[in-house]
Amino acid sequence: MKAKIVPKKEIVLLYRHKQAKNAQALLPLLESGVIDADGMDLKNGTLDRGDGTTAVYAIPADTLTGLSRYGNDPKNSLLCIPMYTKNADSAAALIGLMLEKLAAAGK
Questions:
Q1: Is 60 exposed, middle or buried (0-12, 13-18, 19+ CB in 10 A)?
Q2: Could you state, in chain order, the average pLDDT of each consecutive group of 10 residues for the chain (107 residues)?
Q3: How far apart are CA 63 and CA 23, in angstroms?
Q4: Within a 13 Å sphere around the CA of 41, how many CA atoms are in the beta-carbon half?
Q5: How far apart are CA 12 and CA 107, in angstroms?
Q6: DSSP state letters, 33-74
Q7: What is d(CA 102, CA 74) in angstroms, rounded to the nearest whole number?
């Protein structure tokens, strides 16, 4: 079985002030069941779908303190999957792995 690699720009780290402008260009994250965000405060990543209902379109990266090891400051940023992605399942799996590994790395 070949490993799937998530190509560049399949996952985006946005600053919160840019999220509202990009909400229409993002995929909902929790519907596939691949990302386990139990216990996380997701209010900053929850947006209106445009029909009066809401969904989680971004994961607050603040809890991923392990990102700082790689030169990324997660403060005030969100992990998102852009609508144009061709690898949504792989991108979601990578975000799930990041939540598991990088949140623990900073503890």
A1: buried
A2: 52 66 76 82 84 87 83 83 86 88 63
A3: 21
A4: 3
A5: 24
A6: S----TT---GGGEEE-SSS-EEE-EEEGGG-GGGGGGT---
A7: 11
